[in-house]
Amino acid sequence: MSEQIYWDDVTEGQEFSLIEPMDSQRLVIWAAASGDFYQIHYDDNYAKDNKLPDIIVHGALKGMLVGRLLDEWKGEDGSIKNWGVSYRGMDPARQDLTVWAKITKKYQEDGENLVDLDVGVAQPDGTQTTPGTATVALPQR
Amino acid sequence: MAEELDDLTDEMKAAVGAETSRAIYEVTTQGIRTFARSVGYTDTKYYDEQTARNAGYDGLPSPPGFLGMPIFDPNSGGRRSEIFTNPFTRRLNGGTEVEPIEQVYGGDVLEAVTRITSLELANGRLGQMLIQSNETIYTRKSDNTVVAKTRGTGISY
């Protein structure tokens, strides 16, 4: 389990991230987990026949990778209020994706200690394909 | 390519606010483990129920965003029924929002009710598009508690 982070200790502008390899095995496991069996995500020939450069990472998997980043960061005593992403571009598989978050606002509201964040997924060359936002509640010391 | 629309059809306007699907989602322990593995979790609370209970959970917890799987209907053809005639045949998933509300556990059975929250016509590089926003509310059957809401945007063109 991750170390607990406290609202008092975070600052606007703070960033955190994880890097995830997106190989074909990962996409097949996601297909089983999500029930999304569209062949562009695991069948090379099908993807090429659809004029794609390679099999494509599922959009929903990228959204849930952002969820995992926030879940691990908030610790046991934090809670995710919401997160959302837009699927603005395709990510071919067989490359590492960087899943990132940046605190944009730190505030208190209705008795909760909150941070708003920009979130996203980036390809190795820096191309951003999955921008979004999130709100997380953190415990106070 | 579909014929350009000047405005939403009456059928489309009537669909806003309407329920588009009602489904039962089963949150199984194996589903939780497969989801956790697919997004790369290494925290064993998502794999081992005793570890989770020792950490204070009431069972095997579901990671945020995992709300189980709908019971597959072999007669549906794998597609949801449409409640309005959509002249645009190509579809894109525009985005997803998740609002976790209560902790979900392995063994939970959820009822998922989806409604259309908005329909808009827009023009973009793909030509004319229909942008459909949906909200799905997930309610745990055993205690009638709303455990999560998701919002999605679908683009057809």
Description of the molecule:
The complex is a heterodimer of chains A (141) and B (157). Chain A has helices at residues 24-34, 44-49, 59-74; strands spanning 15-21, 79-86, 96-109, 112-122, 132-137. In chain A, a hairpin with a 2-residue loop joins β3 and β4 (112-122). Helix content of chain A is 23%, strand content 33%. In chain A, strands 1-3-4-5-2 form a 5-stranded antiparallel beta sheet, covered by helices on one side. Chain A is of the alpha+beta class. The radius of gyration of chain A is 17 Å and the shape is elongated. Chain A starts with 14 loop residues before the first strand and ends with a strand. The model of chain A has no long low-confidence stretch (mean pLDDT 96). Chain A has one domain: Thiol Ester Dehydrase, Chain A (Roll), CATH 3.10.129.10. The longest helix of chain A has 16 residues, at 59-74. By secondary structure, chain B is mostly beta strands. Chain B has one domain: Hotdog Thioesterase (Thiol Ester Dehydrase, Chain A), CATH 3.10.129. Chain B is 15% helix and 39% strand. Chain B has a 6-stranded antiparallel beta sheet with strand order 2-1-4-5-6-3. The longest helix of chain B has 11 residues, at 29-39. β2 of chain A pairs antiparallel with β3 of chain B, so a sheet runs across the interface.
β-sheet strand percentage of chain A: 25-35%
What is the CATH superfamily of chain A?
Hotdog Thioesterase
CATH architecture of chain B: Roll
Percentage beta strand of chain B = 35-45%
Which bin fits the share of residues in helices of chain A? Answer: 10-25%
Please compute the radius of gyration of chain A using only Cα atoms: 17 Å
Provide keyphrases for this structure.
heterodimer, A: 141 residues, alpha+beta, Thiol Ester Dehydrase, Chain A, five-stranded antiparallel sheet, 3 helices, B: 157 residues, mainly beta, six-stranded antiparallel sheet, 6 strands, 15% helix, 39% strand
